[in-house]
Write a structure and sequence with these properties.
14 helices; alpha/beta; Rossmann fold; 2 domains; elongated; 399 residues; six-stranded parallel β-sheet
Amino acid sequence: MRLKEYTQDNVRGKKILVRADLNVPLKDGAVADETRITASLPNIIKLHEYGAFVSVISHLGRPKGEPKQELRMEPVAKALERLLIGQNCGINAVTYVPGCIGTAVEEAVTAQSADNVLLLENSRFNPGETENEPEFARHLSQPFDVFVNDAFGTAHRAHASTVGVSEHLPSFAGPLMLREVEALSRITGDPAKPFVVVLGGKKVSDKLPLLQNLCGRADRVLVGGAMVFSLARALGLSVGKSLVEERQIDSCRDIIADYNESATKLLLPEDITVTDDIESPQNIANRPLSEIGDDEMGVDIGEVTRDAFALQLSDAATIFWNGPMGVFERKPFDAGTVAVAEAIAANAEAYSVVGGGESVEAVNKLGFAGSISHISTGGGASLEFVGGLELPGLKALAI
């Protein structure tokens, strides 16, 4: 897929609406993790250097179409200002605008100076955002000359600020968006072999399109996380109190049958770490997948599987990883996720892509980020892209 890329001639002297992904965690009224803000800086700085007047819009959390004090963008504006000033790029202030449409926004854009960036209010405070309401999109675009979408993490959403605005303004992809598409296209195009995929997380329903798309394309698909137990049930195994999506059992049977008829190996864990209670475990044990007790729940891939998955990853030429292997946020149930992160980082010859919040958190926390070829900013978006689905935010920018 080729996306429209802006040049200096496209944006010089123009009022630019930038869609960024600034959906960051907040704690005690301040930004708790600045990773996504930092990722947005190169585009903002580039536009400033090209002589553009930059206004940024993003969603934050899930306010469901109503203003919520705890989800206002003001703390994000403060963090963005500090980070931009620290870049010594000539941007000296970020002004928080407590709205995203209307007279206040139009006046702020008209009065904007070249060394100032505007950050508009949470786009999801308006119900027209998630509904891609044409009138809201029209009002959103009204004060601006050009639209630049640099929010790959929301490219799978057909919202007003990702798709609707593009119908009213000349629209281009930002550098982060271009980099994501280029990196993920190496996975979806003609990946070097062996192509090994690691999938985890709670819900097999989230991964079904991807599992279907990978069948016959990947060489091996290694499965961890709670999604294992829906697949295990489809094989007729008892999984105790482990999380199962009952409505997906038939789909899981179909997936398993498809893989059995293809050249792609679908590898489930040989063993599972189980416990009686996640919050206050009294008993933790290692069990074969087929021997989980009625009062036990699976919380991680087991010791044998960790070594087996590491071996499968050791000779891979292309790797894609999305989703933790267990209850990563609670020790000692993070061991499987850590083992996978270590194995991917150890394979210096492979082209490796990691996407999804907890997977990315694992490689960052363990200090392996520098050993990964590409860390995707889009969890759901990267899943859908690799799964072969059409992303509305990309379609709106396609050449």
